[in-house]
Amino acid sequence: MKDSRIRGADIVIKALIAENAKFIFGYPGGAIMPIYDALYDYEDQIQHILTRHEQGAIHAAQGYARVSGKVGVCMATSGPGATNLITGIADALIDSTPLVCITGQVPSYLLGTDAFQETDVVGISMPATKWNIQVHRVEDIAPAIAKAFHIARSGRPGPVLIDITKDAQVALGEFNYVPCLNIRSYKPYPKVSDKEIEDAAALINQAERPYLVYGQGVIIGKAEKELEAFLNKTGIPAACTLLGTGALSEEHPNYVGKLGMHGNYGPNLLTNKCDVLIAVGMRFDDRVTGDLTRYAKQAKVIHMELDYAEIDKNVKCTVPVLGDCKVTLAKLTEQVNSAKHDAWTAKFHELEAEEKRVVVGNDLLPTKDGLTMGEVIRHINEFKADDAILVTDVGQHQMVAWRYFEYKTTRTQITSGGLGTMGFALPAALGAQLHDFNRQVICVVGDGGIQMTVQEFGTIMQTKAPVKVVLLNNNFLGMVRQWQQLFFDKRYSFTELENPDFQKIAEAYRFKVQKVDKRDDLREAVAEMFIHDGPYFLEVVVEKEDNVFPMIASGSSVEEVRLS
Amino acid sequence: MKRYTISVFTENFIGILSRITLIFTRRGINIDGFTASESREEGIYRITIEVTTTEEQIIQLSKQIDKIIDVIKAFYYMDDEMVFQEIALYKIPIGSLDPGLEKVIRQHSARIISAEKDFVVIELTGHKEDTQALLEVLKDFNVLEFVRSGRVAVAKPMVTIDKYL
User: Fold this and answer.
1) How far is A23 from chain B (nearest CA, A)?
2) Phi, psi (deg, nearest 5) at residue A151
3) What is the interface pTM, i.e. ipTM, of the complex?
4) Is the whole-model pTM more than 0.95?
């Protein structure tokens, strides 16, 4: 009789295919070679993207996961391969991104011997993963992968890691894939309480100045329509967090702007004026709340949240509404009265007008000589498609692009929020683009961040992903410089960069390139970028010492948001 | 700051203790006592952690522990919500044996559980105050070794783990 057993390495690939993984972002090495050998036989069923660094692989997997809503898969070898994943794992945990990371490990009989490229990857990744496991036996591989996918994608998503010893990869076993649907100790979707919905509805129905703030939970929970229906019925003004951006079209009449350190003036200021604050799928990050002791103290707070550990973590709520917001928002909409809050909403628009007068005008239509980041985004808006995806790095350009990019559909804002990982954008944009070559993916990045993962130009070249890279170059680590100016007495300690010729670098990777340093050339350059159908690199030399406003200084209250 | 006990029911999963202790490490909180053993249910482990902290913090700690995938349920209690015991062993050299020692053992309801050629081992189960009091008295008899366990505890509220399985 023919032996039906296959190698553990083949089981890994067949399990990934069974989970409908389309891409593996990875980098080979000694301890994962059997899996790469197996991959060679399945090229027609699953696509491997060879990045130029493991950090590039995991950020690409994150970009793919955030745009597609599917689990991102990445692979690396033991030791340095695995440790290079850690930044991305931590980023995915804090931003609730579903990832399955597979790392090779030295053979089980060498564990603990300081063997070549041996690192305690389970130990190192433990505080940054939702779950992780080391597998030593071939029969444990498929169940571990099944469990990993279930954990990564369900409830509040997150990264999981499976460390597979080399001997398990080469051992023979039967492949019989059983998807994991339930884990006894893990209840990802808490039961919705009708009492909580009733209590929340009662508060909302009595409110005179209700205010809704929404986060990425709405996007993860695919509750965009439910949010819109709730807002349509109640007439409540709504503002988004950084990662919640796009869950509601900015053209929606109830949309009043963005929250946080560099969010909009009104949405921050009026947090301390509302009487009922409804928080949906957000976790009251310190960049949103500022000083917690002076955050929305006057308001009754309704916290609609899936993760029980977030309830009362930062802000004590009056009524928790635990559960999937797709369900709870729909139920709540049934129980609230139709209402309008025109006078209250008008307050947001008054403050918006003030922000426009003091800040936005100068950002978007500057009269000074130097180019602003804002006017670059204004031109991008002019030519971009409605469903264009904006991927940003971390720093001033991230905040400016977020403030001015016109978000019209969900899953169009991809950035490193919680962790603030410089170097995120370029590989994440690649991952986002691979999900759909027909959508515009615009990667806005600074001159600091691009140099942290610049090697991924190579992966973009190899995959021919038509990413539009817009480098906003001020030859400074701009956000740190801004803080040095405002809070460290203009002592610009190690923030000025002597930069290379970025045009030559991009050109070496066969990007079509263009550089702009005059206002008169900007519009045309942006237009040309969108017409080009391959990878494009546009460098814009912007004003060296511009600051991002409004701003809530670290430790200040939301009502201390400053316009200049 | 008050003394709390967290009672955690977990799957028997490699690394689960690390995952739990990381939650304390990350917040810079010291663990006062720790015990782990299989529970009434085969394959389910019960971990008892003693910690001195605030009410606010203990709620966060137990929620974060509860969130760990392989944790079935975490409960937290104040001392008066639990029945708890700790065991202590005292190793005394044979030369210290005299009628005074016998009196001490009786008074503290302790017992000798082993007598070897060179030493005896005294055992006492009780609260930390009890085992500490005996230690102070026994110091006069030359304590060669002393060891005390973390607490084991059962809760007074009539909630069992069955509900969460």
Assistant:
1) 26
2) -70, -40
3) 0.94
4) yes
